[in-house]
Amino acid sequence: MTHTYRRIVLASRPSGWVTAENFRLETLEAVPLKEGELRVRNHYLSLDPYMRGRMNDTKSYAQPQAIGATMVGGTVGLVVESKNPHFVVGDAVRGMLGWAEEGVSDGTGLTKIDTRQIPISAFLGVVGMPGMTAWYGYNKILEPRAGETVVVSAASGAVGSVVGQLAKLAGVRVVGIAGGPEKCRYVTEELGFDACVDYRKASDVKSLAALLAEAAPKGIDCHFENVGGDVLNAVLSLLNPFARVAICGLITDYNNPAGEMAKSAIVNPAMFLVARFKMQGFIVSDHLDLWPLGLGELAGLVAEGKLRYRESIAPDLAHAPEAFIGLLQGKNFGKQLVKLI
Amino acid sequence: MTHTYRRIVLASRPSGWVTAENFRLETLEAVPLKEGELRVRNHYLSLDPYMRGRMNDTKSYAQPQAIGATMVGGTVGLVVESKNPHFVVGDAVRGMLGWAEEGVSDGTGLTKIDTRQIPISAFLGVVGMPGMTAWYGYNKILEPRAGETVVVSAASGAVGSVVGQLAKLAGVRVVGIAGGPEKCRYVTEELGFDACVDYRKASDVKSLAALLAEAAPKGIDCHFENVGGDVLNAVLSLLNPFARVAICGLITDYNNPAGEMAKSAIVNPAMFLVARFKMQGFIVSDHLDLWPLGLGELAGLVAEGKLRYRESIAPDLAHAPEAFIGLLQGKNFGKQLVKLI
Question: Which helix (H) or strand (E) holds A45?
Fold first, then answer.
């Protein structure tokens, strides 16, 4: 007795903006498990900006996504069949099973998760890779001190919202940058940031810097960058001496045609000397050794109600491409997920 | 009985390239010492790229140089008259007495130097601010590990030559970047660098990167930047994961007209994510606490003959403007000094 499931593969590489035509929905026959394998029925798929990079054929920190293969992606779900001694049916697991309703694994890269106090979807967000990304950049690169000012771009997003809340829990002044009044209201009123700058109100780097200067009257000591381009250049112009800048993402440029990088160029490197600051790029998967510590702290804060989060949930795998394109355009509000069951 | 001495003041602020007209040579009457003061007859004046920044009227890490005031500058000389209990006639001292044949001080910022084993001029170079700049960036930002490759721009200069020699003493592979075959030969044959790239052989960033890739076949782990612009962009394209970049100077841009910064723009910040590298600007005067340690180590290496250096010496104060303009154009070879006696 067999069954079918759906998945989405990369049909073609985008040139510039991603379109729905770059993806293809397929229905496959499930294959029987071999000894040592287990089958997971995925409940949620995580959509994240890094996926855009994998769609290109250029050198990066990870291999490009192969054409015709299941799109890469983080998932949470339940074990539904097991020939692996370490997993039993009913175990909740997080893994990288991709844009697919189910997946077969030998257990490598799967982590059991405890969903008794925390909803399963949160393990793809605030207590998953995005939360850990925030935790690493905040604690290991920015290291804000009392009295300093932290700026976070994409402040209402899965990563930015955690960065700002960690700062507030530590008593540090936090200014968010987000797109539109609704996101800014969420950032200040629900997440408790001290201020939020709506970048859509600025027409250029200079006017954005003026809005930021108003929200950060003592200058900027730490910056957590998810965006790049004008946002990054505006922040750099306001850095205090010995500032720290964590480069987590540069979403502004992810859809540039190959070879075009002008939007995110750092136009005034002399600021490196004026403010003697440190700028450091990072990828959270380089630091797997710290995940148990970081995720443990984040889970504790969520369970105590001290860390809030919001999710945008697309209703079905077929909607994943549209939701992903929306994410790259900033249309999501909070962590973007796809419901698979 | 009195005497006169000469000094050079800032006559006007340059717009773009510095010219001789931005300076004015003056002859002054020496004034009698007050209680607590001493008079130093300067033997050498140090010319350094940072002086260009002080000639502007823009915000930087230091106050702009005032119009009509003695040009800022490091000096070494001998005490010739003293009403200060801590200094006696004949003491050799290093200080910031500016572009002048002599200076009066209350002792603040003057350091006694021991010229028994090391020539007095070296206290403005290899065992002075430039040497300490190299020491700080090398030890506190780059921290190269065995088997790594370090790149240094302006490799034959006062700072770059020390960076590369420190790396060689530690057994690290070093590639210099310098202008012209004579400087490159000096860097490899006399200073012992493993390779030197002549940037004049490259017509653009891409061809410069190709030359660098040949000289650094295992990629670049550490970079000490004195130049900026194409040099920096070429190096960034070749960085290995977890590389460190110390921004010491960006001389390419020091003579840009105000507001124009395009030459040194960092064109591909995505490399921050691809290579997860750290880039940090620094100013050696922020770290005065480390000078005794660093200068002590450098003096030991010079005395043992393990650290080589070269000087370009202009013969008289009147030649200082011309020598300074040459320095900004890369015409000097080694540490640029002006002989004042």
Answer: strand A38-46
